[in-house]
Every structure is written in C-alpha cells, then in structure tokens.
Amino acid sequence: MKVTIVPAGMNLIELLAGHLVASPTDFSRILVVFPEQRPGHYLRKALGEKMGHSFLPPTIFSLDDFIDFLYSRFLGREESLLETVEAVSLLYDLNEVSPEHSFSGQKESKLTFDEFFPVGNKIFQDLEELKMGLITTDKFLAIDELAGEKIPEKTRTRLQKMSYFYENFYREVEQRSFSTRASRLEKVLEKIEPGWFSSFDEVILAGFYLLTAAEFELLNKVLEAEKTRFFVLKGAGWEEMMKRIRVDRSEIEEIDEAEGSSGEESSVLAPELEFCQSPDGHGQLFHLNNLLADKISRPAELNEKQVIVLPAVETLIPVVEQTLARLPETGYNISVGYPLTRTPLYNFFDSLFKLLETAEEDSSDGASSLPPEQRFRLYVSDYLNFVLHPYTKNIYFPATPRTAEHTRILFHLMENNFNQKKGRLFWSLEEMAADPDLRDSLEKYTGENPAYPRSSEFIQHLRSIHQQTIIPFLSLKNINDFAAKSIGLLDFISEESTAPLHVLFEPYARAFYQQLEILQSQLLTRQKFSRRSGYFQLFRRLFSEARVRFPGTPLRGLQVLGFWETRCLQFDDVYLLDLNDDVLPGTSKVDSLLPAPLRKALGLRYHENLEKRIEYYLSLLVAGAKNVHYFFIENDEKQKSRYVEKSLWKKQKKEKETDENKYIKKVSYRLALQTPNPPDIPKTEKILGYLDNMTLSASGLNTYLKCPVEFFYARVLGLSEKEELAESLESSEIGTLVHAILRQYFWPDLKKKRLPKSDTDRLKTLIDAEFNQRRYPSPLTGSLFLMRKQIEQHLEEFLLAYQQKVASELQAAGQDLILLELEKDFKLDYKLGQRTFQLKGKIDRIEKRGEYLCLLDYKTSASERNQVINIDKLELGDRSSWPQAIKSLQLPFYQLLASAKYQLPPEDIYSAVIILGRNHLNEKIEYSPLKGRKGSKPKGQVEKIFPLSESDEEKLKRQQNFRLIEQVIDQLLLEIVDSNQPFSARFKAEDSCTYCPFTSFCGQ
Ligand code: SF4
Prior knowledge:
Layout: E1 3-7, H1 12-22, E2 30-34, H2 38-51, E3 59-62, H3 63-73, E4 80-81, H4 84-97, H5 113-132, H6 137-141, H7 143-147, H8 153-175, E5 178-179, H9 181-191, E6 202-206, H10 213-223, E7 228-234, H11 238-243, E8 252-254, E9 272-278, H12 281-297, E10 306-309, H13 316-322, E11 332-335, E12 337-339, H14 344-357, E13 360-361, H15 372-375, E14 376-379, H16 380-387, H17 405-420, E15 426-428, H18 429-434, H19 436-448, H20 455-469, H21 479-496, H22 505-518, H23 532-544, E16 547-549, E17 558-561, E18 573-576, H24 596-601, H25 606-623, E19 627-633, H26 642-655, E20 664-666, H27 685-692, E21 695-696, H28 698-706, H29 708-716, H30 725-746, H31 760-773, H32 782-812, E22 817-832, E23 835-849, E24 852-859, H33 881-885, H34 890-902, E25 910-915, E26 926-927, H35 952-977, H36 999-1002
Parallel strand pairs: 1-7, 1-8, 2-3, 2-6, 4-5, 6-7, 9-19, 9-20, 10-17, 10-18, 11-17, 18-19, 21-23, 24-25
Antiparallel strand pairs: 12-16, 13-14, 14-15, 22-23, 23-24, 25-26
Helix pairs in contact: 1-2, 3-9, 4-5, 4-8, 5-9, 9-10, 14-16, 14-23, 16-30, 17-19, 19-20, 21-22, 28-29, 28-34, 30-31, 31-32
Bound molecules: iron/sulfur cluster.
C-alpha cells in the first residue's frame, strides 16, 4: 500500500516504530521524512525502547533537510543558500541595471540601497512564494484572465516589474552559483525519478498536511518510487490533503479506529477538556502553576508525555521564571525559538545605535578635518543609556586583578556631572573626556581611595572605551564594514567585560555571530547605505526574525514547545497557553506586493492554508491527549481563539448544552493593588534641629503639601532620583533658555514709564546669542533645531499677542505698565507666634499695573493644571482636603515674600502665572489661581486683563481666598516643625505616588 490513513488519536511515532521493528530490513536502509526535525528524536527513542540494544537508526529528515539531501546527493550541487539580505542585494543590482523596470517609479531617478531595502525584502518573499507555487512567468503575466477582472494600470505596471525580477533574479542566482529554498526544490523537481530511492528498502513520508504546490509535487514524485509509503493523519480537514495526492484508491488503506487509542470524536477515550479563561497573562500562569503544583513538588512525576505549548513566544520568559524556575534543570526541556530582539545583547547594540542615530555632525568650515571624537556631538541622554547598559558599565578596567568596579564608578560620576549641568544636551566625546569637572570628581574620588587608579588612568580608560565602542560606527563604508565592526564590538564585550557571566550570554552571543556573519557576505561588499541610520535599520530588520534556541535535553522531563514543534507528536497532558485569536491563527495580513485577487487567482492562499494547517495539527494534538487545558485571555482587547470557540461549540452540541459558560473556568486572582501607606517617620532631635534652620522655598512647601514623607526624603535627607535625568533634560533646558531670553529682552525696559513696542528682531538676536553661548552643534539639526524654532515662534507670539496687547489695553484705560524687577531673589523672616521661619524665592517678574503690584511667573508647560487652587474643595478644618484642593502654593507664597519688601498687605498683591507652552498665545495665557474659576464672570461681562475688569466683589473674593490660603501656609509651616507630628503619608495627595521618585522606598 502506498498510503496509510491513520486515525486521529493514534500515536504516529509508536505506529512507525512498530512498523519498522516488524519489517525484516536493516533500519539503516530506511528513509523517513517528517515535516520537521523533532519527531525524528522521538522515533529514534521509540525504536531504542523497542529494540533494547544498539542499532543503526534509519535516515530521518525534516522536509527542508530532505530537499537539501536530494539537491546535493543526486544533483551533485553545493551552491550555498542565499540569505534574505543577500537576495535583496542581488535584486538591487537588477533594479539598477534596468531603469525601465526600476521600483523608483521614475526612469531617470535611481533608488538608493536604503530606499530599495524594504521593497526588496517583499519582492524576494513574493518571488519565492511564486516559485513554490509553481507559477511560471507566462502564467504570472496572463494577469487579466487569472484575476478575472480588469487590473488597474498602476498595478499592472508593478506586476510587470515583478515579472522582470521573476525572470531575471533566478537566472542571476544560478549564474552567481547561489541557490534559494525555492530554486533548490525547482531543480530537484526537474530531475527527480524513482531510481533515486533504489538504495532504500523503504521511504516513509509521514505527518504532512497542506503544503505549497512545489512541495506537493515533490511528495507525489517520491510516491512514484515503488517502496514509498505515506502516512496521513486523519486530523480536521484531512480530505483536502488526499485530493492533492496522486495515488490510486486501491493503494490506500485505512487503519481501523478501534486498533488504536480513540480520537476526539470517540466517546470512550475522548480527552478531558478544560477551558481556562483569564483576565491577563498573569492569570493564566497563576492557573498553570496551580495545575502543575503537585508535579512540581515531585519532579519525578514530570515526563516527556506532558507539554506546555507556547504559540506566543513572549510567554516563554514568564513561564521560565515563574513555572520552570522551581524545577531542576533536568526536569524540563525547552524547544522554542526565543527572539533575539528580546535579549540584553540586542538592547546593548540597540542603545548604541540609538546614540549614533541622534549624533549631530559639525558641518561648519574646517570641521571635516577634525577627528570623529571632536566632529560629532552626542545626545547626553542617549549616551548615558548606552554607557549605563550593564555590558558597557561592566567593561574591565585595565588593572590586575581584573575588575569592572572602576568603570561603573567612572560612568556614574559622569552621570552625576551631566545631571548637574542640565544646560548642555550635546557633547563631543573629546569634550566629555576633557571635562575639568569630571577630572575634579575623579580626583576627589581617587583622593579618598589611595589604592584606586589615578584620575588620568580613568580618563584614558574612558577614551579607550569610546574607541572600542562608539567611534568605529561614526563612519561606515559599507555593509561588510558595518558587520566587521559589529563583530569586533561583540568580541570586545565578550572578552573585556563581565557580559559572559550573565545568564545565557553564550547562546545569545553565538546566535549574534551567526547573524552578523551573514552581513559579511561577498554579495554585500559593494552595498552601502547613504545614511548611517540605514545600517542600524538593516541590523534591526535582520534580527527581527532571528531566534535563539535554548539549550535542553530533548525528550526528558516536562516539554515546553512552540505550536509547530508539536506536529506529529502525542502527549498525555497538554497545556495550551495564549489561545487567543490574535495569536492563533494571528493576523491575516499578508505583506505582499501582489494584490489579493491576483494571489487568489494564482492559488497563493497563504493565510487560508495557514488557518487550515493550524486546525489540522491542533485537532491531532488534542485527539492524542488524555487531558487538554486550553488557556485564553479575555478582556477588552483579547478574544478567545476561533479554535477554542469551535471546540466549545462541539462540546455543547454533543452534550446539548446551550450555555458555553458552564464549561469555562474563570480564573480570578486577587491582587493587593492598594499598598498601605508607609510608616510614619518620627522627628528626632537631630531632624528637628535641621528643620529649625531650614530655609523654605515655595517648591519645598509644595512637596510637603503633596506628601510629607516625600518632603522628608527630598528636603531633609536630600535624596534625588538620578534616572529621571534623561527625561527631564529637555524640558528643564527649554525652561532655562526661555527664562534667560526673556530676562535679557526685558532688562532694558526696567523702570520705564511705558513698555516699548515689541521688537521681534531684537528677540531673535537674543535667541541666537543664547544658543551660541550654549555651544550647541552648528548648524542645529534634529530635535535641537525644532526646539529653537518652537522657542522663537512662542516667544514672538508672546510679545505680539500677549505682551503688546496687555500694554496697549492698559494704556487705553489710562493705566501705566511699569516693569519693576526681573528674576528678583527674596528672603523673608516670617514670624508665626514665637517662631520665625526663613522663607525664600525668586520671582520672575514684578510689575505695576496702575496702582496694583503684580507678580508674574513664567511657565513653559501647556496648561495651568498644576497651579489650580480649588477654594470650593478646601475645608480648613479637614487637613486631608488641602492637597486635593491646592495644586500649588507658589503664588500666595510669593505674595507673602513681596509684601514685606513693598510694604503692602499681601492680599492686595496680584499674582499670576504666564502659560507659555500653549498652542496659541494671547492674553488668556495669564492665569491667577486666587481669582477663582475661569469663566466665573456674570453673563455678558467680558474678562479683561487684570485689573481692568475686576469688580469690587471679585477683588474682595480674591483677598478672602488669599487669607484662606495664608492660613494653610501658616499651619503647614508649624506642622513641619511640630515635634509631635511625624512625617506621615496620611495626608498625601491622591495621585502623589504616581510620579514620586521614592516609590521603592515606600513600597508603593
Ligand atoms: S511614594 Fe507616595 S507615600 Fe512615598 S514619599 Fe512618594 S508620594 Fe509619599
């Protein structure tokens, strides 16, 4: 018989082993082909168990290996397989030589390799798919009839270009002595004949389902050989497979179901199904751990008949950490490819490439002759990300014995220094190494530790790290050069840092070398990108598909497999995780240049076939098991997989049950998301002494109002969070620049009786001068260029749409606007009963509007949200209402500071913030929190600039509001120094922990 139909639920491996043992022939004269490699391990093991002694095993191949075997053994060909990137390079050359077929869209303009690269990838995939689909060029060009509809001209042109590549690419591959998966199979099909298999007593094909047209053709050709036998498993939709096999009905036999264990349909030994619905990934692991708890406590009970199936590879690490970590290493085997993009090594390269992508090159006169460490300036935030990566900061210092401690100290000192100099975003490597502040910090550090190397040695080490890591990538000649430098860097990190001591570094590094060596291909020697970032994109693309295999002992202990690795295998207990529709079958989008109707007409139904293949193999996996646990997540974004739905429906039909929920186990777990407040911190004598002498600013008082515990950490212990540097750099930089520019702009206008007309030319000159003084790279590019533009635009609008308007409105009303002070420092001894508090502050701008003293503070934020005082929510007697009602005490605090100097009652002083970060600037950017809610004016009355439209009633309200807030300030000051009041989080604002840097201290 040629074809044997095997009932679902029968163990294919056992069946084959029994078949082989029963035959009189020597196993080594048998050839077995499976869809993939893994069943081969199981078959050898099953034969070993049956034989009980050593033996020569059969030749066992996966389908790909089988094609390679035929290609080299019978065609005598050894051409190496083209990697995708090499194929794209060949296609690019073809694109170059034939402008009329070029993908540039215009005959005269050529695409650079960067531009061609993404489209080249798609062309290669499509060409391979066409060839595997046995589509000839003629058939491909008979587009109209195939698609059954008129194809738009643009699409037709694109397809003609494709046909040009289809005709020429494989010719070129052949001429240059390469091969592809599809071209190998094509060559095999041209020559294959039954005689090829005469040296085998039997050829067994087993476990295949819906293949490409060319693969089907291969199976059929092999079946023509006399001693071939094809085992077809009777999974869901198996009949479709049979339609593609060319055998006579008389040559088909079917094993009776009763002969083997029953399939899913059988009422006798149908597997127990459990459907576990979880709200998220934690829930499914929580339930998996519960199910395995007994076995995990007795690892001897775990064996290769139990499998955790991971269709979503991202679940692997949580499973390793939360489930397998409790088992001995011999208790499980993982056979899932883990994406290299999720490894620390990838992060290392990626952080370096991000740093290089944001590097600014000095293009001023004469700059091109400078060495790279002077010519390029690097963005500090990206630089810190790279040097603080565990692999970089653990590069060994050149000392004996080897230690990485000094390197860590060096980079953390640099981090501190950058933190203190937030004004500069871009530094050249030379500037970093020559920074006198770094030398001072190092000398201070080494002075305290005489056994340490000298500061000059640290700086030499820094330069050397720059030379080994960053500088080589600042100029790249071509892809080979990029590959050589990446391999050099990997060598350096492997030999000169503690990276090899990190878990799994070795398999990751091996996989990296393999990928990078692809880029050293001869074919890529000439290819270069016009921009540096092209190489980094290529790197990301190359690694996006790359996987690393975890080491493990096959066939021992609990098996952890990807979905496709379960093909042809049978397990007793199956734990199928992540059975969600977006995972299995996954997205239906096919990334192809061929339009969907044409793909359909050509029979390229990749996704449809994929769905059928999943269903087929899943049905077999389930049918062969005793217990199957389907895990799926259900929430707003995720739905159970269609295969779970089908299985549920089948069960409902069989048991005549209308409610599917009866079968679903809903996994819920309780998380204590609300962490208790941290314990109170009592005020010791020492702390009270410190508080007595403390000078308080408005921001200190705001911190206390927000959370007294945060005040203790930040203001008493003086702790701060370093990691925020990268984030805060840009906004603080903008704030500093804007304040400096406005101060200089208004400085000549101080004390003038009338504010002069706005002068935007002078403003621009000042902006230029301020940027030049900060030594940014010239000309400005990227984010700095945008920042410069934004500042210029906003400040111009501020002068014309706010400042000038305010001045002229006041003037029209007969009131003068006189600037009194800019960035004025204040200090005040503030008496409350027996106690005196030292208060301080800097007020951006003080002006007179008519008879009123006005205090203004510039904010570069886009909203007044952080300044709001909601008097309606404030209950003086209810301390907990204060942080909810008051977002900032800054302006009333300033009123107190200014009242002493100007000898005015503080409530008579007006205060406001100017919100400069709004999209549109006008007089409404002035916001005074004590004036009450916006839009609270009676209907019909227009809100004007202060004080023009303020009624007596509104003035009284503003004064009353101040008095209320003044009481809050007074009570907070007294509370801070009260020995009976510990620092307590009881009164913190509701959302205060969200952005607090001390959450880890408090366990929040
Ligand atoms: S984490 Fe929360 S409780 Fe702790 S200091 Fe910060 S704001 Fe206060």
